[in-house]
Design a protein that fits this description.
By secondary structure, the chain is an alpha/beta fold. It folds into two domains: 140 residues, Murein tetrapeptidase LD-carboxypeptidase, N-terminal domain (Rossmann fold), CATH 3.40.50.10740; 133 residues, Glucose Oxidase, domain 1 (3-Layer(bba) Sandwich), CATH 3.50.30. It is built from ten helices and 14 strands. Strands 6, 7, 8, 9, 10, 11, 13 and 14 form an eight-stranded mixed beta sheet that branches. α8 packs parallel to α10. The protein is globular and about 50 Å long.
Length: 302
């Protein structure tokens, strides 16, 4: 399957903020709108953005309603960028209501978000769309996080992060060029056995996690191994692991190192596109180049 490329986004482009998971904070959405407008963009909201549904799960509207808002944004030619309102929980629940055949016929556009939005990233990858593992509307967009996103969208970013990754296992001698897939580990592992997965063959698996203890992280890594996914990928990049806002680097590094050595594939640590600040936006589904130095460069044709 040929993967689509991201279009260049400039001031004047139309952004649609859509509810995909947990209910939103109106002040956070307003802050996001003001920041986007200050950068010269137009902003609109999904119809059900401020709705609440399910006293147990605290979702941003019903599953069908959230899927309708997403489909409307993806198929509306006036919308240039789709931005997830927030993560939390619930994106998986709307996947059965998406008409992927219809969406696949549309001109692809950047879809941005992270954490629970991993479920959507992997689903879009299954139909050949490139998407962006980047901030949600609830994120702090002022500063490096927003700058990284806008530079990526404008086609001005050559390197994902100024800091090289740390190699944990099986150092490479030549540059590895491969599409990246993944996102939040809990969501990647939860999608195993479903049709909402990318083609892992020959890709680099990107992972990040928050609020998960090391033994739970290991369980999910083992699930990916037992499912055969780690037999298909060319390497693992684990961005970071946070627990109660504290890094669990050394514990999780050892788990990633061990499983990479077992699989005979390289593994890296430290490309921070996750729950800490700043967050560096990462294109998924398009080839990136990992250099022996640990730097990651973009190869997208715009």
């Amino acid at each position: 399957m040929t993967t689509t490329r991201l279009s260049s986004i400039r001031p004047g482009s139309h952004w649609r903020i859509v509810p995909l998971a947990s209910s939103v904070n109106a002040k956070a959405i307003e802050s996001c709108r003001q920041w986007l407008e200050s950068q010269g963009f137009q902003v609109s909201y999904g119809e059900h953005l401020f709705e609440r549904d399910n006293d147990v799960l605290h979702l941003a509207g019903g599953d069908r309603e959230r899927s309708e808002d997403l489909t409307a944004a993806l198929t509306d030619p006036a919308v240039d960028v789709v931005l997830a309102a927030r993560g939390g929980y619930g994106t998986m629940r709307l996947l059965p209501y998406l008409d992927l055949g219809r969406i696949q016929q549309e001109n692809p556009k950047p879809v941005i978000g992270f954490s629970d939005i991993t479920a959507l990233h992997n689903t879009l990858a299954s139909i050949g769309w490139t998407s962006i593992h980047g901030p949600n509307a609830h994120s702090q967009l002022e500063g490096p996080t927003g700058e990284s996103l806008l530079q990526l969208l404008a086609g001005e970013l050559e390197e994902i992060t100024p800091h090289p990754m740390e190699c944990l296992a099986n150092p490479i001698r030549e540059t590895v060029v491969a599409p990246w897939h993944g996102g939040n580990l809990a969501l990647v592992s939860a999608l195993v056995g479903t049709p909402y997965q990318p083609d892992w063959d020959g890709s680099v698996l990107y992972l990040e996690e928050v609020h998960e203890k090391p033994y739970r992280i290991d369980r999910m890594l083992q699930q990916l191994r037992l499912a055969g996914i780690l037999d298909q990928v060319r390497g693992i990049v684990f961005g970071e692991a946070l627990f109660d806002a504290e890094p669990k680097d050394e514990a999780v590094k050892s788990l990633v190192r061990d499983i990479a050595l077992l699989q005979g594939i390289p593994a890296w640590w430290g490309l921070k596109s996750g729950h800490s600040e700043p967050m560096f936006s990462l294109p998924l589904g398009t080839p990136l180049a990992i250099e022996p130095t640990g730097h990651v460069r973009l190869l997208m044709n715009r």
